[in-house]
Specification:
Layout lengths: L1 H5 L4 H37 L7 E12 L2 E12 L4 E3 L1 H6 L11 H7 L1
Length: 113
């Protein structure tokens, strides 16, 4: 902010300032959302009961994009060896679209892809 105040106000300086302020505000918010969703994921995984034939394989990480930034989400992966299909119960429970939260408007998803 001091650097912005010390230089002539130009369009590029305003753009840089907006980017810095956005990062300063959104990064802590993404950390908060990530922490809350990780706790929810832990509860979902603890309560999940595998379907017949499913086996818990591992805990996997996903870099999730939310409206305010990105965060890492760790969740259990289940696999059915007969059907060779697998899934992360947390993803469905939280309504994740791939690696995006449902809070991202469709227009944002088009821009991010």
């Amino acid at each position: 902010m001091a650097r912005f105040s010390a230089q002539p106000p130009t369009g590029s300086a305003v753009q840089e300032l907006e980017g810095l302020v956005r990062t300063a505000l959104f990064k802590p918010a993404a950390v908060i959302i990530g922490g809350l969703l990780q706790r929810a994921a832990d509860r979902i995984d603890a309560a999940y009961r595998p379907k017949a034939g499913e086996h818990r394989k591992d805990r996997e990480s996903l870099l999730v994009q939310c409206l305010l930034g990105t965060f890492e989400l760790r969740r259990d992966y289940y696999h059915h060896p007969v059907t060779d299909c697998g899934h992360h119960p947390v993803d469905a429970a939280l309504g994740l679209e791939g690696s995006y939260t449902p809070g991202l408007p469709p227009a944002c998803l088009m821009i991010l892809n």
